[in-house]
Amino acid sequence: MLGAGASVYLSFGVLVFGSTIPALEQSQQSSTMQRAEPGAPGTHSTGAPSPGQQPDRQSPGIISGIVTDKAGDLAVGAKVQLTGEAQTPSQELMSGDNGEFSFTNVPPGPFHLTITARGFDTQQFSGELNPGQAYLVPAIKLALAAAVTEVKVRGSAEEVAEAEVKQELQQRVFGFIPNFYVAYSPDPPPLFPKQKFELAWRSVIDPVTLLGVGFLAGVEQASDRFGGYGQGAAGYGRRFGAAYGDVIAGTFIGSAILPSLLHQDPRYFYLGTGSTKSRLMHALVSSVVARNDNTKQWEPNYSGIIGSFAAGAVTYAYYPASDRGAGLFVENSLIGIGATSVADIIQEFVLRRFTSHVPPQTNPPHHP
User: Fold this and answer.
1) Judgement on whether residues 206 and 66 belong to the same structural domain of the protein
2) What is the pLDDT of residues 180-234, one digit of tens each?
3) Within a domain: residue 359?
4) Whole-prediction pTM value?
5) Strand (E) positions, 192-325?
6) Do residues 288 and 337 share a domain?
């Protein structure tokens, strides 16, 4: 029994041979007529072309072949597209039961075949067809396409928020100063209460935070501010405790407790695009507006404003009696709001270039 490939070539031979029979009969009839009319111009009595006669340069030809896979199995139903300089429009057909394809009446000249099949890489073949030629294309072998699977693992909303917080906890100015409360991502996910408390906790226990509190306490002691604390190591300790209490109260009340209750985001959303004026306005209003966790819309920053006064009320309780008063309460509260605005301006125009582990910004975030 003939193999599949051999049967294809045999069938092709029969096809070509069979196609020559009508031509042969026509040639014989023509020759007979020529012999009957010996004076016909351009012919000889034998029917053969004259020695100087050239074949028709526009005579169409045939392009055929078979398609298999790497294992040699015949590829049934592969799409074969034929294009060429004189081929308008392109022709398409599907390989047959034996993987065969055949284009007839193809104009002579350069041609190009494109073979595609589901699950296989696209194959290409180019050649040039002479006038009246039956062009047999070498067997085209299809290779299995490499499996490309795109898996987008997004996880739950809380898991996405946790990943965002882990990214923000790596942000440090000059590589060591914490810069946790800035969202550089184009559209950062809302934080859950767990992440808000995590940011607050990591912020207040950071060694750089403790160093900053220690420096502030030293400045207050040198200027004898809050004289009721006294001087010496005891006075410095009291100032350090009060300053650190301010940080803890302000951070947890304004950035964790109230934002969790009111569903507001305590972070600064870096803009980074637009005019200087628009970026400046964005930074200035960020201390008094916040993004709602549920709607992602901007609204008055109740968490930050109320948090500043609440923190001021808490800190009022442990300052020296001689330094207490309405002035201290209002001062600490307003200083907190004003300091946030100044910090946001610096964030918008300065700190990004000095902050480590900042994600690339591809699209501007929503802003108030």
Assistant:
1) no
2) 999 998 788 999 999 999 999 999 999 999 999 999 999 999 999 889 999 999 9
3) no
4) 0.57
5) 268-269, 289-291, 298-300
6) yes
